Amino acid sequence: MVGRLSGASPDGTRRNALVEAVRYWADEHFSRGNWRLVLFCFIVLAPVLALFGYVRMGPIISSVILSFHKWDLINPIKPFIGWANYAELLEDENFWLSLKNTAIYALLTVAMSTLLAVPLAVFLAAKTKLSVVYQTIYFLPVITPMVPMSIAWKWIYDYNHGILNYVLSLVGIPSVAWLTDPGIALYALVIMGVWKVIGYNMILLLVGIRNIPSTYTEAAAIDGADGFQRFRYVTLPLLKPILLYVLVTSSINAFNVFTQVYVMTLGSQSAPGQAVRVLVFDIYQNAFQYFRFGYASSEAVMLTLIVLGFTLIQFRVARNKEGQDG
Amino acid sequence: MVETRTPLAWALHILVHAILLLGAIFMVLPIVWMFFTAFKPPTEVSLWPPRILPIDWTLENFRGIFEDAPFGRFFVNSLGLSLTATVSVCVTSLAAGAIFGKYKFPGRTVLFMAILATAIVPFESYMIPLYLQLIDLGWINTYQGIVLPTLFMSFGIFLLRQHTSSAIPTELLEAARVDGATEWWILRRVITPLSIPALSAIGIFAFIQAWAAFIWPLMVANEQVLFNMELGLTAFQFRFTADYGKLMAGSVLSVLPMLIIFLILRRQIIESVALTGMKG
Amino acid sequence: MRTRKSKSVGIDRRAALKVAAGAGIAAAAGMAFSKRARAATTLNIWTGYPELVPYYKSVAEAYAKTKPDVTVNLLSSSLREMEQKLSAAIPTGTGPDIFDIGSGIAIKFIDAKLLDPNPADVETYLKSGAWNKFTVDWFTQGGKTYGLPLLEGRAQMFWNRAMFKEAGIADAPKTFGEIMESAKKLTKFDATGKMTRSGISMRLSGQGSGITEKFRFVLEPAGGTLLVKTASGKYHNGFDNDAGRKALQFYVDVVQKDKVDDPKVPHDADAFANGHTAMLFREAWVIGEIKKKNPNLDYGVAPIPRWDASGPVKGIIQPWGVHVNGRSKQKEASWDFLKFLTQPANAFQITNMTGWVSAREGVDWGPLLKQTPQFEVFVKPPKDIVLFSDPILPFWDEIQTRIADRLPGMFIDPALNGNPAKVAEAIKSLATICDNVLKQAGAYGTA
Question: Which of B176, C113, C203, C329 is deepest in the core (most CB within 10 A)?
């Protein structure tokens, strides 16, 4: 191919210009000696990218294409309808409602699970026996599968027989209709979401804290910094990459909340659907209950764009902060 | 550590531990509640005031579940599928994470963002296209079809990238290169051992995710012999009943293996997370 | 030097990996080898009713006595997930030979030509008088028949005899007015004013089409209906009227004015079986639940009452069919099994074993009624019941689900309490939602 191409171009100067351009581009991106390094990178990445392409990128691209079609999942005929699904989405009350609920859920869950995990990790960073016990306990919810735990929580939240209302009644607080009250149901989900994820965030931050060479904090202590100052000016800045990871993954997971909602709205003693309608629930309903697969795909594309924008902002903020501190 | 504490520091110390203890109770309560409810007869499930421990311990709830399903088989399936997923996620996360974290090459940012962005897309929305691909491959109703989507985890690559870029000094790699080490050697002998804590963190997450897989195995498995635990439990659940004793018994069956594995490997999981490669 | 050293370590590592891989392969092999050897014909059956599995199994065993070369392979999951699995598998040719499914999905398969019309002998069998005309019509689409009726959902009123006796009420209510009067006497509160027992258990919260389905148990006797079919074959809502407003008012009164039910208290079959409520509209399977959970419960089952003395008794009927996959390679064997499955003896068994009622004619219900008289109204409903059903439309479930999104909020909205204008407004908004789905599907029309 290359031979034919160069043969077709008798003008040697033009060919040289092309080579120059490629060389210039290459020099821009990596020094000449790094060619082998780049080759190494791609050799290692190749199998991962192949798997990624097959199980993720491929199907996702198909679903993006589907978002421009009308398809009921069963009928082989799927007419192309351009942007119609997206236009409809903007006028869909359920979409806006689920966007609002998801945003509230994500904001509260991420904020609370991170804000609580940081002090937790700081307290438990000391290598004591008690610390190990606490770590184990706080990590337990992370390893429990979501479907059974949602069922357990549903029972804990039960108005009449739930243990949560019983505990509240011991301190004189009247029973709360955790699930059936439309004004409270979403917050009940937030509590459960924080319970589930806090241990994982804690462990990651703990790794981060223990990764900080003790010489840094010791030096700060000699300089007369108190505990809080050491945390604020030494630990926190060095924790930034892991904190960014925790924030980004928690947000993505929070925006994808579904299983809990599905279980909590099932049956009669459950949360009213509208009160806890979140985006993935809405997508699921459109796809598999209303059989509007193209429409559901367009909603998934919107969700992706929103969260992607959100994630990019988090990266940008983290980078700027690094710049300031460094 | 011998430190003289002021009364204020003591008060703070006690307060911190009181809060930690309260938090710990909050964390275990749902699991403890689920566990003991599974051993209660129906008459005790909705007692008021609630009792944590059953009065009449019963195995009736479990007997009901084991009656019509081969749960031993489901357990082996779940174990095999989850282990495969864990190994694969660890290998792919380490390979890609290290490359993204420690090397510069054209397209790095774009590729990394693409991998991260796909983590945002809800699985339910691209499950059907994936199912259609799998038909072409002839993998419907096979173990490899069930395990396929869990072999890869964007967050794993992300975590390993964060870890390698922050916790492994570039100078270490440069020093190895000066000594004449190949990149392959550096990846295996320098980066890998220093990434064990992050890998164990992501490994257990991969295991949990694969263990809890439900919707996809449901789509792909057409025969009971292929079922995992989650699928087995829901397949035999009655739809309309809120039979909490039995539901909780099913939940215990699904959670218990995870708990046991976690408690056995707790040292490795949490301690290895704490054993930072940096110290050496 | 360095490389060599690393190599030796590397081998150890590789050996460890080999052990791990070996273990993995062994596990995989262990999984694979127990796949059973197949008999000459294996019929794969999928069901969305896990409680039907023992029934299918017992029929398959009986069938194997006459056809020993046929084995049946069952797969079950909860209904919603099974619908999802079937809609992915049937169009792509990866589905089972036989499946049971509701009409909403079946019609999609029929429209997409994924189900064949019944073979001549099956059609003859269906129309042989083995089922009543209502049911046969149900399985007829465009002059052709599809599938065979397996069971039917009929909801009636369960009432707790002991509670009624205790409250001094002689018999089950005959009108909705009587329901409310009885319910007021039957509801109990504790000292703090918390409801401890509801007079009647209505579906007040949650999500999904079931909420609207139950709403229709009130709407239909009141004289309304969800969809009206026009002469030209189009549809429009049938509840933006007096009947719709009366039905919603009834719910609002139940929750707010008369306080005979509350979203917070236990509901549904469980609540009835455990004595947390005095009345419940539900299908026959609840009888099985009660047998399991509280066999000594003293209760009766009566038809859902008339709206008032002059109104008709209305009863919902929801046939549920079994179908043969149009892409099955064993259609003949499949149909043969289905004909066996729907014989009177097996029809008796489905009710006896699962509590679901078979729609089959010519079944001797005597032994069942002797044992459980509560089945009477299900298997021998009064002749004057006016039946209503779910129209067979692909967008039916969407209409019910979208209305169900709104109803729970309305039931507890204080603005609707004692405010007919607000109730009318609410009903109008539901009617708009309903008509919008129809318009989207191109099925809306008023003439």
Answer: C203
